[in-house]
Design goal:
heterotrimer, A mainly alpha (161), B alpha+beta (199), C mainly alpha (141), B: 199 residues, alpha+beta, five-stranded antiparallel β-sheet, extended, C: 141 residues, Helix Hairpins, 69% helix, 0% strand
């Protein structure tokens, strides 16, 4: 029976396995996220990255998990991913005067002079949109898991707050 | 001993199950078979049949006969509903043999009608209609959107992953809204569960 | 016997998906524990994705390299047109991909609401919560 945080028995096999698998899961998630030259995409890579963090938090507890993903880094990833994608989208709507054609972004972008229209759209898909989606999905899933599994030791029952 | 009376919740659950079974039989009966090669959602839709009296020569010469043009516009593919018009000089007719490999796809024997759309980035002619001849009848089909996606993705966006190109480029605004929903979910959990100054 | 093959055996995907939909939806209505209702809702959403994605399968009579007779996944490769393969319809896959992730996020919000209900009432059975609500009203809040 547990009486506080430090009374659980530690198991060596599970801890070594989890700490060995953790960097390889993150590397595979990054490989899937940048894979528009084959299978892959933003949503799929983001959830694989979140799975690595959730494995580490489940084995080691929330206190040690907080060192890997502190609160400020979490908030930065959440907002930076949304800023990349929504920034590109709202610029398109403004510059095309709300005719809502996604294609007009290569018309005013300076990258178009080097690669042409098709290359500019490929650059947008692979490096700006996928990365934006992946970071937001990873950060929001990890933060939801932290909130649902944190124990409040000093809260009374039936309290409304 | 009498069994205990059923609660109203279980009775309503069983009634829902029976209604759903009846609805599913009604819906699944009309669907095409799973994995059907010629299902109309994935290839082309049949429009109408016309007698092939003297029309084959004018199709081979590159002019669309007047009967077919009037019938197509009567069905609703005209200028008022924002479809491209079938005027002179706006279209082109191509003939391909059955089993030949041209333009990157395996073709069945027939005439393809290619129409200029006249927008900013869509300058090349796009396949719209397809005419086949069988049993002294001419059947007119209309290509569906998945055919255009499969053939033109490599030219327009330089990616070979059709699913990601459809998510991020052709349907980009939908994905923008769904990402906002995911962020709102994370904020909702924070507001519900963090108390006493831990925010 | 022909109607059996034509209506039942050729469309086995849709029948299985409707069976799981029925299981999920009756579980949401009949069960009284709040967590079991949420699990039924999640089962229902997963079966809906299966039903929608299997509308787009094409090409049953062409032999592929791995021995099955289906269409290939919608990623362009050069040998597909020479050998006569057909790509699967990409549109249902595109539309359901965001739906899967959004359903996971909304399940998390629902679980947070269940935790707050437990902290206030002390149980997660439905009829006990209704009795405690009536007592609250009778006593005066």
């Amino acid at each position: 029976m547990t009486q506080g945080k430090g009374a659980n028995k530690r198991d060596v096999v599970i801890e070594v396995t989890a700490s060995l698998m953790f960097p390889f899961i993150l590397l595979f998630g990054l490989y899937v996220m940048m894979g528009t030259g084959g299978t892959g995409g933003g949503f799929q890579g983001g959830t694989i990255l979140a799975t690595g963090f959730i494995l580490y938090i489940t084995v080691f507890g929330t206190d040690k998990g907080r060192e890997k993903m502190p609160e400020s880094v979490n908030v930065f990833f959440k907002s930076f991913g949304l800023f990349l994608y929504n920034g590109a989208g709202w610029l398109c709507i403004l510059f095309s005067l709300a005719t809502a054609q996604w294609l007009n972004m290569p018309a005013f972008w300076p990258v178009t002079e080097f690669t042409g229209v098709a290359g500019a759209r490929g650059f947008l898909i692979a490096y700006m949109i996928s990365v934006g989606i992946g970071l937001t999905v990873m950060a929001s899933f990890v933060s939801q898991y932290f909130d649902l599994s944190m124990k409040e030791d000093d809260e009374m029952e039936g309290d409304e707050g | 001993m009498k069994p205990p009376a059923m609660k109203p919740l279980t009775i309503s659950g069983f009634i829902t199950a029976i209604l759903l079974i009846a609805l599913s039989i009604y819906v699944v009966e009309d669907l095409p078979a799973f994995g059907d090669e010629n299902s109309p959602v994935n290839k082309y839709v049949k429009l109408f049949n016309v007698d092939a009296d003297g029309l084959v020569e004018s199709l081979n010469a590159g002019i669309l006969p007047l009967q077919i043009k009037i019938k197509i516009e009567d069905m609703g593919f005209n200028k008022e509903e924002n479809y491209p018009t079938l005027e002179e000089g706006n279209y082109r007719i191509e003939w391909s043999e059955k089993g030949s490999f041209e333009g990157g796809r395996l073709s069945e024997g027939g005439w393809d009608i290619l129409i200029n759309e006249g927008e900013i980035f869509y300058n090349e002619p796009i396949r719209y209609y397809f005419i086949k001849e069988e049993n002294r009848n001419l059947t007119v089909y209309r290509y569906n959107f998945p055919v255009r996606i499969n053939e033109l993705t490599e030219e327009e966006t330089a990616t070979i992953n059709i699913v990601t190109a459809g998510l991020a480029d052709y349907r980009g605004y939908d994905t923008m809204g769904e990402e906002t929903v995911i962020l709102t979910g994370a904020i909702g959990v924070i507001l519900l569960l963090r108390r006493r100054g831990r925010l | 016997m022909e109607w059996l093959i034509q209506h039942v055996l050729e469309k086995y995907n849709f029948w299985i998906a409707m069976l799981i939909i029925i299981i999920g939806l009756t579980a949401t209505i009949v069960k009284e524990n709040l967590l079991k209702k949420l699990i039924g809702l999640s089962i229902f959403q997963t079966a809906m994705f299966l039903w929608f994605v299997s509308l787009g399968d094409v090409g049953r009579n062409i032999l592929t390299t791995w021995g099955l007779k289906t269409g290939t996944p919608p990623i362009l490769w050069e040998q597909a047109a020479e050998k006569g393969y057909i790509y699967v319809n990409p549109l249902p896959n595109v539309l359901m991909l965001t739906g899967i992730v959004v359903s996971a996020a909304t399940t998390a919000v629902a679980l947070a609401i269940v935790i707050r209900i437990y902290q206030k009432y002390g149980t997660i059975e439905e009829d006990e919560i209704i009795e405690k609500e009536k007592e609250f009203e009778r006593v005066g809040g």
